[in-house]
Amino acid sequence: MLPAPAHSQSAQVPPAPSAPRFVIVLDAAHGGADSGAALGDGQQEKAVTLALSVRLRSLLAARGLTVVTTRESDIDLDAGQRAAIANHANAQVCLVLHATQSGSGVHLFTSSLAPVRAARFLPWKTAQAAFVARSLSLAGMLNSTVLHAGFNVTLARVSLPGLDSLACPAVAVELAPRRGSDNSILAQPDDSQYQAQVASALVDAIFAWRSEAPQP
Amino acid sequence: MIPRYQKVLFVLLLVASLAMAAELWHLRQRAHQRLLAGQDSAPTRAPEVAPDEPATLVVASDLDGSLTPQARSLPLPSDPEARARVLLGNLLDLYAATGAAHPVPGGTSGIAQVFLMPLPAEPAPASPSTNPPPAVAAQNAQDSGPRLAVVNFTGSFAASHPSGIETESLTIQSICATLRANLPRVAQVRFLVDGQPRNTLAGHADLTRTYLTADSVLTSGAADTATSPAQSQNP
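Structure tokens for the assembled complex are given below, as produced in the milestone run.
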């Protein structure tokens, strides 16, 4: 899957078709007037999701992947605008980033839409239905990698308006506090070290999925 | 000097004004009496002490994202709508209790109403010799057919609900599963807040869609999760 180095092509040989770009869309949920959940230490969900998005973008870009983010600052975006950005990017992975004060570890959600066969035109509100199988595969890879990194993981399928419109393998990642065995909070979602560890695990999972899962 | 006809006109207008004022006061009194009479004749029923019945509350836990059925013995009214409201009120009371695994403030008062409505029945195969007339058959099918439950949350419940995909989805799913466990004819559930449609419960869980109670698969122990109930794994 590595692209052929362009400089090695001679003038007589037609250039080999370059490998398709592997594009990742990061959607930091909420923003602007929509501050999302109020987290335990006074932080707002929109700030935590943006910080996690920036951290992931840096890690992925540093390893040579193309990253598209839905927002880079505290702006208002509705679900339709987010889906439009993601769907125009023709991405191979879409991660919708959330944070919460309830539960523990990392919550991974895929769309609860029933899978349908991919078609040239997809209904906007249920575009994800054509990608559910690949989204589940991606969630499985994220699950095993994040679990291996030592975090609690909760897997579920939900009806989430922003997720159901994405025409790409998509998983919503909700970062919850890290808790000890006695349910005490060891790290809040805005803890930079905690975020870095989770982001690193997510990046490893994306690379593993990229190399293992058959891409269309 | 005021002309005579103007004096007469003034007196007539004054008399008319007084007469109208008297009539208005009279009508007001009659309306008041009618209101009081209406209140008196409103049907009242003595409070009934319903016997305790076995019930199943499907309780959510944020720690592992699970839904667990808990057997209870509750005084349940016979009316299905009131029954559903009591069941969901008891479920929300569990969530409002101190130390709840799925903490949600509000309790019983978070449910304003629960309505049960018949869903359109599937057309039955035709056999003209024995079938009742179509209208009667449709009525029979509606009486015994599946129901749509409309759960109306109070605005204060939605405003105080913790925000997050998992916690909001667990509330929705535990309500659907509790309705399914106790009222098997409830096949679909829709949610309102203060009687109005709303996009999300507290910023995440979709309230615009109709939830199928058949999708509320329990996850206490190993279960094949279909829709939202979560599977939690520890490292």
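Chain B has five helices and seven strands. Residues 219-229 of chain B have pLDDT under 50 and may be disordered. Further analysis is deferred to the final report.
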